Amino acid sequence: MQPAAAKWYDERDCVYVEFIVEDSKDVKVNFEKSKFGFSCLSGTDNTQHSNEIDLFDAIDKEESKHRRTDRSVLCYLRKAVPGKSWPRLTKEKGKINWLSVDFNNWKDWEDESDEDLSTNDRFSDMMNNMGGEDDLPDLDGADDESVDSDDEKMPDLE
What we know:
Shape: extended
Number of helices: 1
Order of helices and strands: EEEEEEEEH
Helix content: under 10%
Radius of gyration: 24 Å
Low-confidence stretches: 114-120
Number of strands: 8
Strand order of the largest sheet: 6-7-2-1-8
Structural class: mainly beta
Mean pLDDT: 81
């Protein structure tokens, strides 16, 4: 039995932990107030994985959940005290060789107010509200054979 590789990141109301296991089976996630456990079988050789984490702070075990995909198991840990930053996932300081920070999803939310969305959030919302590709105008003009009304005819230089 070996621990599964995992990445984590902190948000205002929750902490996400993603266990990187392909083709997982028999997934078990056990949420407790100050720790949680994960186990599964993965791959064609049914490798056994087991992880136990003593958490930095308390979670709401009733509101915490997980979702399995073909490539990983994502765990959502609802903080018992929302708005409190977790500088690390574990209670004890020190490096854990199977655990790393998910810098792709990490953002420094502590300096933001609830009403003030970060620039990235505003940009994402704007992009989501724009609609699909079919709504975008044709900007390259490659398919447009007509001449624009304000294009001036260039004289032939000979």
